[in-house]
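Lecture 7 notes: from sequence to structure.

We start with a single chain of 217 residues. Read the sequence below before looking at the structure.
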Amino acid sequence: MATKSPADLRWIRPPQQARSQETLERILDATETLVVEKGFEDTPISEIVRRAGSSVGAFYTRFEDKDALLHALYQRYYEEALATADDALDPARWQGRGVAVIVASITRFLVSVYRDHGPLIRAFIIRTHLDAGFQARQERLYLDVTTRLSALLLARRGEITHPQPERAIAFGLALVFSGLERALIFGDTRPGPFVLDDDDVAAELTRSYLAYLGTPA
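Now the structure, written as tokens:
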């Protein structure tokens, strides 16, 4: 079995077993593509089914309305995110690596995830403010990911000089995710003398988090 390394982090889509899922997957794939192109609210059902090679009738046999489609799209994203976390945060992948390497690698990977899935994540975030069910699932996903990452860092607490490592790890992660949302999902619209590209965002978030933990970069 090949050894996993920080260099091969990737987004994972679990395989679909039933062939009956094919039409559903085509609709979800088409929706995700269109959300990236024009946003969820501006994507009509007619265009979704046309892009999916399906029909309005087939759509309504699976979804009550467009809102139900967004829930299904989030469920798939949720399952993919958990599978990705299982792989990316496997302790075996990080054997022999310290806090600085883990934080830098995971932050760079999160930047790529937020860039690739930005419009979709934006639609989900907006819906969490309107739908308690969405919010509950989003909180479960965040808790799962941060719990796994916190465990990796706490296993190396000797490298953290903050007087309260558990609090520093949790609060620092919240700052990282907030920074990702601001920079890559909603955009920082304040005027300034420079613009950060994705590498800059990853580098600055990594530097900030490590400084807060009291860990040398």
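The chain has a mean pLDDT of 89. Keep this in mind for problem set 3.
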